[in-house]
Design goal:
By secondary structure, this protein is an alpha/beta fold. It has two domains: 2-114, no CATH class; 121-375, no CATH class. Helix content is 38%, strand content 15%. It is built from twelve helices and eleven strands. Strands 4-3-11-9-10-8-7 form a seven-stranded mixed beta sheet, with helices on both faces. Strands 1-2 form a two-stranded antiparallel sheet. Strands 5-6 form a two-stranded antiparallel sheet. α9 (223-240) packs across α11.
């Protein structure tokens, strides 16, 4: 019944709002020029002869009209944010339902988690979706070949995996875990006995998860969780490179302040009243320098996100970090640790780029929910 009420309400809202836009409340000529007018049904190939051909023409026109209408309400519709804000409020506050369950999962005590629309993250975290043994063996072999290729060039290789928020705060996820291993655990079991430099960062986080290591309304770790992950990475590298001095808690001023908007609440157009911990270095020596590499065709995010490059006077070694969004906070510590730090987001293991950069160390940082990328690159 709740669903019927919601659907009926939004048919009225969307239909009424569409009519407002169609009836020239806004500058219709401006809308026409920008392509934001409510789409019209246009019969293509009107002169088709024969009943079957006319039916096919109507079908093709209807399909195109549906596509145009979908684009209008998802991209061009001027009230889409306002309408979704109302929808989200009604679903969450009136019907106590998740507005977009595939995108987010409402947890216990105000926690929110990324949904299965992103890489089946829930199924992977709780062990429903697992690797085959052949897939595990393929990943191990691919990593071994990369390690050997780098070793021939006197470059050290470290593969690090921050755990999903679902893994760390399973107790707040309203879905029970299976008894089997999940993908990260499968890979960890296969890689630990090898000579590969593999760090499953879930092993380096405190078991009581206190203070909070991840945001409640965002899919990422917070400054505290990222710093613990950094320490695990830096301490491991320092075993091979004694000249590296990992940062300590005493190097930072730790404060608490508002966390204005998490990516999960932003999806739902919901307000967030979360507070979080922040790490501010007492002394900062890094300097950001201009990007130098061309942006590859496969990179579809904002161009400025692809490459970040820093130098830090007096610090040793050059490190190349192939990373994802979990490096957003991690980089704040790495760039203060090494003489030169080059970070490429969502970058493939590009041998030409690595040879051009000639780093001392390559770090492959990959959050658990991106683990399947190791199958192909």
């Amino acid at each position: 019944m709740n669903r019927v009420i919601t659907v009926a309400f939004f048919i009225l809202v969307l239909g009424g709002a569409g009519c407002v836009q169609w009836l020239d409340v806004a500058d219709r000529e401006k809308d026409k020029a920008s392509g934001t007018l409510l789409p019209q049904y246009v019969l293509k190939q009107k002169d088709e002869k024969g009943l079957l051909n006319k039916a096919k023409s109507h079908y093709r026109s209807a399909v195109q009209f549906r596509r145009d209408l979908d684009k209008f309400y998802t991209q061009d519709f001027v009230f889409k944010d306002e309408v979704f804000y109302i929808y989200s409020g009604i679903q969450s506050n009136v019907f106590k339902a998740n507005p977009i369950p595939d995108k987010t999962v409402a947890g216990i005590d105000g926690w929110r988690f990324l949904g299965d629309s992103y890489s089946n993250v829930v199924k992977e975290s709780i062990g429903i979706s697992a690797f085959t043994q052949e897939e595990v063996d393929l990943i191990v072999e691919r990593l071994r070949r990369k390690r050997d290729w780098l070793k021939e060039r006197d470059i050290a290789y470290y593969v690090v995996m921050p755990p999903n928020k679902h893994t760390v705060y399973q107790e707040y996820l309203p879905i029970d875990r299976t008894n089997g291993l999940n993908r990260r655990e499968q890979l960890d079991a296969a890689l630990r006995p090898t000579s590969l430099n593999w760090l499953d960062l879930s092993s380096y986080l405190p078991s009581d998860h206190s203070p909070l290591l991840y945001y409640k309304t965002d899919s990422h770790w917070n400054h505290y969780g990222a710093f613990l992950g950094y320490q695990a990475i830096a301490n491991r590298i320092a075993k091979d490179f004694p000249e590296v001095t990992p940062l300590a808690f005493d190097d930072f001023k730790v404060t608490t302040g508002p966390f204005p908007l998490g990516d999960l609440t932003d999806m739902l157009k919901m307000e967030s009243n979360e507070t979080s911990v922040y790490f501010e270095p007492k002394e900062s020596n890094f300097k950001k320098i201009p990007s130098q590499l061309p942006i590859p065709d496969y990179f579809t995010s904002y161009p400025s996100n692809y490459e970040r490059r820093y130098v830090c006077e007096g610090k040793p070694l050059k490190v190349l970090v192939l990373c994802d969004s979990y490096n957003t906070l991690l980089r704040e510590y790495l760039r203060e640790t090494f003489g030169e730090t080059v970070m490429l987001r969502y970058s493939n293991f590009d041998e030409d780029v690595i040879e051009k950069e000639a780093p001392d160390i390559v770090i492959r940082e990959l959050v658990e929910r991106n683990i399947e990328r190791l199958l192909t690159n």
